[in-house]
Amino acid sequence: MRQSTLKELSEALGLSISTVSRALKNHPDISERTKKKVRELATAMEYEPNPYAVQLRTQQSNVLGVMVPTVDNFFYDSFIAAIEHEARLNGYSLLIMQSKDLSEVEQNNLKIFRKNMVVGVFASISIETSEMEPFKKMEEMGIPIVFFDRVPEVHGFYKVCLSDEIAARMAAEAIIQKKKKNVLALFGHPHLSICKLRHASFIETFRELAPETNLQVAWPELMEASRIEVLKAFGKKNKPDAIFCMGDMILIGVMYAIHELELKVPEDVSVIGISNGLMPTLYNPKITYVETSGHKLGKLSFKQMMSRLGDEITAEEVFLESILVKGGSL
User: Fold this and answer.
1) Parallel/antiparallel/unpaired status of strands 323-325 and 288-291
2) 273 and 248 in contact (C-beta within 8 Å)?
3) Helix (H, G, I), strand (E, B) or coil at 164
4) Tens digit of pLDDT for each residue in 108-161?
5) Average pLDDT of 215-238?
6) What is d(CA 166, CA 324) in angstroms, rounded to the nearest whole number?
7) Which pLDDT band, with edges at 50, 70 and 90, does 1 fall under?
8) Using an 8 Å Cβ cutoff, are 221 and 250 in contact?
């Protein structure tokens, strides 16, 4: 159906276009009687303001940008779902982009956000990101950015973070309680702050509480590389009696290798991970994990964004609490 226009409303009511426009905006100069007549006819004629005209006039939209490394990841999928839900309830829509972990794509995405005059951006940085100037430019243009999950290491940006150090410590303590002697710890890309923090905390916990433990550390990041690391570790003399998986993609690769080697969990090897929560439930026994919920992070990030858009006093860095969810794998 063709959408009615302000001109058609004004002609039907015998009023000027500017009067009709101001009536729809509840302008105080327009009488309540006129406002009522305009609103009733606008409803009857199914009139809706042209969003593009509004955007050009106000130089902003009701659109929030979301940039993730990839959308085919359950953590980011649940994060986006939480953001979309909150945005819809608050009158916003989303423009979702993925960087594919490429800095060039990331910067192009920021340009697209600017062209679409988004009012704010949620960003999880790519592996290649080292230069923060493109993000600073967005802030200088009055477009607030809330970084989440993968956040910049430098100060001066607003971040919503998982409790990476605490999560890694909780996982390490759970392994130590089971008195494991040979632990294979698998982390993601060493360039990312999230990986650095989890690695440092995990290692420090063992140094403090169980310095005699034999730790093997690798940085496989993705499924196939994780599978290969496990196969290599079981080809050595000191075979792992426990495996720590920093994320869900690593966990999947680890479980592929365990099935390939026909090992039993936890009899032959124990497994623990840091997870959004779905993947650990797909195995038998269920995998013990420290929860880092994308859904909860999304809700916390949206709250932070609303605070920034409202020019409220906002903490530069906020953290999501982690919890240990026990399965039968440790």
Assistant:
1) antiparallel
2) yes
3) helix
4) 999 999 989 899 999 999 999 988 999 998 998 889 999 999 999 888 899 999
5) 95
6) 11
7) very low
8) yes
- In the block, residue with structure tokens 């916990």: 205
Q: What is the pTM of this model?
A: 0.74
In the chain, what are the domains? 6-49 (no CATH), 59-162+295-320 (3.40.50.2300), 164-291 (3.40.50.2300)
151 in Cβ contact with 178 (< 8 Å): no
The burial class, CB within 10 Å (0-12 / 13-18 / 19+), for 3 is: exposed
Which position has the token pair 């026990």?
326
Per DSSP, the three-state class of 221 is coil
Instruction: Report d(CA 167, CA 94) in Å as an integer.
Output: 30
Residue closest to 299 by CA, chosen among 90, 109, 157: 90
Per-residue tokens: 211 = 């310095």
Look up residue 63 and give its amino acid: V
The percentage of the chain sitting over the pLDDT mark of 90, rounded to a whole number, equals 69
Ranges assigned E (strand) in the chain: 63-68, 93-98, 120-123, 145-148, 158-162, 182-186, 214-218, 242-245, 270-275, 288-291, 317-320, 323-325
Residue 201, both tokens: 């905390």
